[in-house]
Predict the structure.
Amino acid sequence: MNCETSAEWMSAQLDGELAADHAIELDRHLAGCESCQKTRQTMARLAADIRNLPRHQPDDSAVIAVNEAVHQLAPAPRRSDFGPVLDLEELAEFLRVTPETIGIYLDELPSFELGGKLLFRRASVEKWIERREQSIPPTLPTARRHDGIDSDVILQSLDNLRMIRMN
């Protein structure tokens, strides 16, 4: 065992997190290493001093400020439950695409307007998805289309670009 590993294991031991087999190996190392013995004494003294420090309860306003800061920095959690009717943003989140992508398929997607707002019934959207899944030809799994272009055409163009760069 080296001294760096010994220091890590001493810290874990002081925290009560060191496995028994590692504790035996650490004790063997400490028996023959004066430098690590001093390090252990220092670490033990610091741990005791830290435990003896007075505990302070932060003001409620400080707790609220920290909580708000954390929530502003953290990404919004993804929804996993949706009601029977979705608005445009909810539909985009449900389908895991951007609202702009929804706009591209707006003519195809089953929707209705209510109170000047475009809404989508979840069950109808799920049926639309099923129809789209069934319309993909099972005999051509590699020939996918993207924005009207065969993937084979895209791959061929990439190969041509590579050849040009090599020359």
Q: What stands out?
A: The beta strands are 85-86, 112-114, 117-121, 145-146, 149-150. Residues 34-52 form the longest helix (19 residues).
